[in-house]
Each structure stands twice: as C-alpha cells, then as structure tokens.
C-alpha cells in the first residue's frame, strides 16, 4: 500500500509520548552542583555549567586533573532511574570510564559505571535510586573532562 502500518504508527506515537514524558523534568535543576576541581577556579567552568541546559557551556578541571568528581545535592530526597551525561564535543571525547554514586546518609554507594560518554550517554537503571546527593566520578580520561550535562529523570511508563 505504500503506507506505514497502523500498528507501527501507534507504537511510534507511544514511544514519542514516553520520551517526552520521561525527559520533561530534569530533576537536577533544583540541585546544588559542586566539583572536586574547577579549571582555574573560573566561574566559566564551574560545576553549575553541567545543569544550565546549554550545550555550549561545561564543567572542566585544570589541565592534568583527570581523576575528578561532580556532586549534585538535592534539596530533598529525589528518585530517578535515568541519568543523562554529555561531554562538550568541540573539545573531543575525553571520558573513558565513569561511576555514579548515591549518598546513603553515611557513605557513598556506587550504583552504576560506564565507559565513554561522548555526545549523549543515557544510563538507565534497573531499579530507581532515591538520594539526597549523587556523585559522578571520572575514573579514566586522556585529558581533563569537559562535562556539559549531568541530569536525572524519572522514566515514564
């Protein structure tokens, strides 16, 4: 018939609805971002640049500082099951390995790890995480990281 099957159209519409609902609210927007190191202590590269919704700004560390972390403190316990990471790609892909930790009130607990970030890395969690603080640890990078986004979402079913 030269047409897309109605069943496929319905599935695509449902996928669009789920994506729009999932990524509608970035839970990190209300969080306070801090970093283990900021390039030259310059506000232009501050931790908050990872939550400002701009792909043109980024958190970066000093040259030679590749073992670093970015921490988000939420105003109250926040539940999420999708984490989105993005690097500032005009500087190239830099992160080779990372880990995500949640604060349980007494200690950090690792809940996810991954390799390269690149343009967009989605980390979908098998179980939701509820935390007041979350930390991104850069475990391996060729040069200092340049992270343009660290965001958290609750997947819509």
Written account of the structure:
The structure is a single chain. This protein has 157 residues and is mainly β. It is 11% helix and 46% strand. It contains 1 helix and 7 strands. The protein has one helix at 6-22; strands at 32-35, 59-60, 68-87, 95-103, 108-115, 121-141, 146-153. Strands 1, 2, 3, 4, 5, 6 and 7 form a 7-stranded antiparallel β-sheet that branches. The longest helix has 17 residues, at 6-22. 30% of the residues are buried. The mean pLDDT is 95.
First-to-last CA distance: 32 Å
Q: For the report, how would you describe the main beta sheet? A: 7 strands, antiparallel
Low-confidence stretches: none
How do the SSEs run, as a string of H and E? HEEEEEEE
| Helix content class | 10-25%
Features:
single chain; 157 residues; mainly beta; seven-stranded antiparallel beta sheet; 1 helix; 11% helix
SSE layout:
Elements: H1 6-22, E1 32-35, E2 59-60, E3 68-87, E4 95-103, E5 108-115, E6 121-141, E7 146-153
Antiparallel strand pairs: 1-3, 2-7, 3-6, 3-7, 4-5, 4-6
């Amino acid at each position: 018939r030269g047409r897309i099957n109605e069943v496929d159209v319905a599935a695509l519409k449902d996928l669009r609805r789920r994506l729009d609902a999932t990524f509608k609210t970035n839970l990190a927007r209300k969080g306070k971002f801090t970093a283990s190191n900021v390039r030259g202590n310059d506000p232009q590269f501050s931790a908050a640049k990872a939550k400002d919704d701009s792909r043109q700004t980024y958190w970066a560390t000093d040259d030679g500082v590749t073992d670093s972390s970015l921490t988000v403190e939420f105003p109250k316990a926040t539940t999420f099951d999708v984490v989105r990471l993005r690097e500032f790609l005009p500087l190239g892909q830099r992160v080779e390995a990372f880990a995500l930790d949640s604060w349980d009130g007494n200690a950090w607990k690792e809940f996810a790890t991954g390799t390269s970030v690149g343009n967009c890395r989605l980390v979908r969690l098998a179980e939701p995480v509820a935390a007041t603080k979350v930390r991104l640890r850069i475990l391996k990078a060729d040069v200092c990281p340049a992270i343009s986004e660290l965001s958290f979402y609750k997947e819509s079913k």
